[in-house]
Amino acid sequence: MSEKGFSVSYATKEELGPGCYGLCNHQTHEIRILSGMSDLQEISTTIHECRHALAHSAYRKDFEGLTPMEKREIKEVEAESIACVVCTFLGLDTSNFNFSYIAGWSEGDISRFRQNLDVISKHARTLLRAINRELAPTEKNKKKEQKEKAKPPLANYTPLPNARIQEAELG
Asked: Which domain holds residue 90?
């Protein structure tokens, strides 16, 4: 998120307001996450708010003619759907709170989810590519460490010039 100029930090219930687990502020470029949540909910909420940071500042033709509340409903359904997709891809089961959040914002109208599958897919892939880029160096380092452990103890030893000791000198 730092690439996009956003910082991520923890906040208290008092700072966020009642019933709020996270907040993306486009004016200050801050993402605030409620402290004290379970790891799964924290990850899901962070992904949700990152989605708002990445995608909700741009103009969208499909929002023309919609009320501010209709736009917000769509944004919330998209953000939570993306969080669900990304978490599922990572092997994290967050569906118990993702689905209830989606159902609440879509008012049970699943067509809102279907209408935005292209947006959800696009931004889920963007977040997953970013996560993979962050994890890739870690995986490369692990593989390098494993190769180093498999080498004999002096495999990387290179004698210094003029460091040879003649047998006669040992004498």
From this structure: 2-137
Q: What's the CA gap between 47 and 92, in Å, rounded?
A: 12
Question: pTM higher than 0.85, yes or no?
Answer: no
State the Cα–Cα distance between residues 85 and 124, nearest whole angstrom. Answer: 7
Residue 169, domain member (yes or no): no
Least confident of 41-45, 70-74, 84-88, 149-153: 149-153
* Whether the predicted pLDDT of 163 surpasses 50: no
Which one, of 133, 79, 122, 126, lies nearest residue 104 by Cα? 79
Please state, in angstroms and rounded to a whole number, the distance separating the CA atoms of residues 45 and 58: 21
Pairwise CA distance, residues 113 & 126, whole Å: 19
